[in-house]
Structures are given as C-alpha cells and as structure tokens.
Specification:
Elements (H helix, E strand, L loop, with lengths): L1 E6 L4 E9 L7 E10 L1 H5 L6 H22 L9 E7 L3 H18 L3 E5 H13 L6 E6 L4 E6 L6 E5 L5 H11 L6 H9 L33 H18 L4 H29 L4 E5 L6 H14 L3 E2 L3 H4 L3 H13 L17
Parallel strand pairs: 1-4, 4-5, 6-9, 9-10
Antiparallel strand pairs: 1-2, 2-3, 6-7, 7-8
Helix pairs in contact: 2-3, 4-11, 5-6, 5-7, 6-8, 8-9
The protein binds 5'-O-[(R)-(carboxyoxy)(hydroxy)phosphoryl]adenosine and zinc ion.
Length: about 350
Amino acid sequence: MRILGIETSCDETSAAVVEETGDAAKPWAIRSNVIASQVEIHREWGGVVPELASRQHIRDIRGVVERALEEASTTWSGLGALAVTQGPGLVGSLLVGVAFAKAAAAATGLPLVAVHHLAGHIESLVLQNGEMPLPAVVLVVSGGHTSLYRVGAPGSYELISRTRDDAAGEAYDKVAKLLDLGYPGGPVIDRLAKQGNDRAVPLPTTRLTHADRNAPELKGDLDFSFSGLKTAVLRYVREHERERGPLSPGEVADLCASFQRIVVSVLLDRLFDAARRFQAQSVGIAGGVSANSRLRTDLEARGRAREIPTFLPSLRLSTDNAAMIAAAGLRRFHAGVLAPPDLNADAALAL
Ligand code: KG4
Ligand code: ZN
C-alpha cells in the first residue's frame, strides 16, 4: 500500500509518497519526499511571517503534490490513502494542507487520515531506522516544541515532560537574532560553535523541580526551560558591549559554543534520566534541532556508554517533511482512525 502525505504546518510545503514494505522490522520505504522551503522569504523578516507562509503554501501545494507523485512513479489511482498534518502549527498554513487533502480525498474517493505533527517527528525515527526496541523514550525538539514522550507500543505516545517556556529551537533562533546571525539560527550557531571554546562563557543551566501548574499530571523534574539561558546570553552580550565593545568573531564563536554545550547537555540529561526512570530499551531524538551536529555525536557517545541503542533521523527527515507525516498516517490508517469529511485544522492539537 502507498500513502501520500501532506505537511504545511509551518514554513515548508511538503508532499511525499511512502510505501509499506511488508518487513515488520523496517515497515516503510520512502518513494518521494518533496520539500519546498520558504526560508528565503521569511529570512528577510527574521522569522516566519504567518500571513506570508499561508499565501506561499497556496502557491506551492499543487506543484509539490504533483511532483511527489511523479517522483514516486505513481498516480492518484496508485495510492491507498492520504495523510495530512492537522496540527499543531500556524492555523493559516495548516488550513492549506487540510483543505487540499480533503478536496483530494473527495475527488479520488481515497480514505484520509489526520496526523499530529509531533507523531510525524517521532515516526521519522522508524522511517529512517526501522522499529525501535520498546518501550522507547523519544525527545521531540524543534522550533515550537521540546517534549519527551514514552512510546510503549507502536503508534502510542505518552507525554512525559515538556518545556515550560521557549522551545530549544526557539532559543537557538532568538540567540542568533540577538547576535545578528540571521534566520534560522540553529544551523548558523551549530557551524560557529565548532570554532569556539565551549567553556569560555559561564552560562546557567535550569533545573525544575516543582510540578507544572498548567499540567499537574506531569511531575516537573524532567521539564525543560530555556528562557533563562536566553536571558543570560542577552545579559552577557549587553555587559560585554558596555564594558569592552562589540564581540569579536572569535568571541561570538565562543558564546555559540558555550550556549550549545548547555542546550545539548540539558537535553541529553533529561532524555537519559527519563530513559532510566521508564526502563527504556532505546532512546531517540527527532525534530529540527536533532539536525544539530553536537547533539548527534553526544547522543551516540552517551548511548554507547550506557549501552542503550540510540535513534536519529537523517538530516532531511529531521526538519519538517511530509514523509514522516505519511508514516504516522499509516499507523493511524491501520488503527482504523479515519478523518471525518468536515476535518478542520487545529493550531493547538494535543497528542
Ligand atoms: O522541526 P522543524 O523544522 O520545525 C518546527 O516544527 O519547529 O524545526 C525548526 C527548528 C528551528 O528552530 C531551527 O533553528 C532548528 O530547528 N534547527 C537547528 C539546527 N537545524 C535546524 N537547531 C540546532 N542545530 C541545527 N543544526
Ligand atoms: Zn516540526
């Protein structure tokens, strides 16, 4: 069976065809994964402009879907189902994908499944590597989310903890903006950090111990917080400018390296704490920030030291793409959860 996935939750218009292999260990194969990125449009504004994003999705969606079918050497009649991101994300952007998918389902008679964006990120790990030993603990870390999930059975996602304020990717983007490094911040900071001394600038780590007021079912000590770190970077830069003038390129690299060391160690500390607590048989990291080079090498090193298998998506499957939505859609399809004809986008959809 082949499924067409559609993803338009933020600033990438993407369509992909994923096929079932019949192999239980590696259940899915990517036939195409077309991504039209809007990053050049939003760069000028220093971040994603929602109104521009939805307008660009409208321009791109039809061509992107046609190209995904063509690259997969298939047509609408070669498909068994359609999957679309229902949320969370920018509502105007989500609506373009949802409306397109509903129209395509109505016109072709294909069944439609609605997918949670983060379920897609989690399934990118299986799409890339095959099924994970379960239970698994997965960290989803992107521009909008920093959350830990326990995966007890395929397709089941149980929230363990999340960020109380900024997402890790958001902290990268804000620090990059502050240092005038451009948008998106993650890849630039990642590159500059390689040339810097990661102990040069003392920055704080935050440890939360009290329960989350907004989500009392979460204990709290595995939660994340990045706004304090961002403020500490801001304060350091202001003070430096006042006392010693602007940062030299070498000092910017040192600051990037120090910031990145803290972010990566906080993310991995919580991930491996949760893995121990939930007796995980494997751990994984997905989402845009999982493209980070230090996070990738440090994850593998810690996994080796603790003798627990680690999972990462390829760089192309780290950031937003429709192949992961197609994969998560196959799980939903086989669970018999079809979308109603009046499916609506949900900017704050819960997983
Ligand atoms: O998953 P994604 O494409 O979109 C969301 O769902 O948010 O993630 C985008 C985020 C951005 O904040 C970007 O700065 C960050 O991922 N990112 C990185 C790297 N590449 C992308 N962060 C750190 N290091 C990277 N190499
Ligand atoms: Zn994402």
